[in-house]
Amino acid sequence: MMGSQTAPTLRANGRAFAQISRFHPELTAFRRDLHAHPELGFEEVYTAARVKESLQVCGVDAVHTGIGKTGLVATVKGRGGNSTKMVGLRADMDALPMTELNDFAWKSAKSGLMHGCGHDGHTAMLVGAARYLAETRNFDGTAVLIFQPGEEGYAGARVMIEDGLFDRFAVQSVYSMHNWPAMRPGTVGMTSGPMMASADRVTIEISGRGGHGAHPYQTIDPVIVAAHIITAIQSIVSRNVRATESAVISICAMHAGDLGAMSVVPGKATLVGTVRTFNPAVQDLVERRLNELCSAVALGFGATATVNYERIYPATINSAAETLFAGDVAESLVGPDHVVRDLEPSMGSEDFSFMLQVKPGAYMRLGQGAENGVGNCLLHSTRYDFNDDILPLGAALYASLVEQSMPLSVPV
Length: 412
Fold this sequence. Notes:
This protein has helices spanning 15-22, 24-36, 45-58, 119-136, 156-162, 165-168, 222-240, 280-300, 320-334, 353-358, 391-405; strands spanning 62-67, 71-77, 86-92, 142-148, 173-180, 188-189, 193-196, 199-207, 211-212, 247-256, 264-265, 268-277, 304-313, 316-318, 339-340, 361-367. By secondary structure, the chain is of the alpha/beta class.
């Protein structure tokens, strides 16, 4: 057991929450062990081994490893024995390439690596759900527990799908959740339709003609071209995208010349940024306008510009029926006053979107912030830590999605 354990202050309804709360200290110790041993996408060797070991101890029916490189899938069959229905539950496992500045006992033991987004907590919650489901089996069907690698920029969900995830485990629906520091513990949020935006990477290569900074008339200055392109790009959303739609274009990095060469006009400049949208039609529009605008602005200065537009993650789109169902399940645990069914979509992105392109399902937020709803550590912060108090609730929510979607014909 790692770190001190305290009795949980968070309360919820239902047998699943009550039973999972009994092994809350073990879940906390497991989560903190994962936190101390962070691993990047497709490098989750220690994490996958710990998950496999824990699942086997929990008594699941089978553990399938190596799906999507370091991904795992566990199955638990209900006691009904009559249904072929399968429901998927997904948790991400990977950490981030950042340095942790916390000083508690379970801080990262690896320099430059950190669980700064709470995937250690998501994994622990799904292991908790696995233990409860294996112990009780109060459902008719099969629970498919998906432990996914590489969410942070590696598209691990897509890799698992390409590796036959849903061919081997033909779930009818799939659910996932993410901790949310901006919401109070004990609250759950979701919305039907767009939940998170697509994430696209834009690289703009500008070619001019370099020369001496004292004789700029002899050059075609790509820095000037880059400045005009950056400014012009800001008009795409305000003048091309409908006001009722959403889009974000951010140029986040620029490279041109050498900081040690104050009088050298470079021959090239590179801009890198991101585009976020919910609607594929808006995504297409932004890509087209970026190509047109960058080329035209550069041409006006006698330069050239090429745009490399990479679609990294699609938008996370919750299906209506599954979102309604997930909200009802959440209400059964925490009551209607603590479930937000029209949560404002985020312009952040999530590779669970790949699963929702293939299967109906819902992505949820699980509050973990301060009681006033304002967490003191945002996601991807160097001082972030998962709130262990919400582990039983997250595990119970996972388990209840299985029990209520595949109920026994004669309830126990």
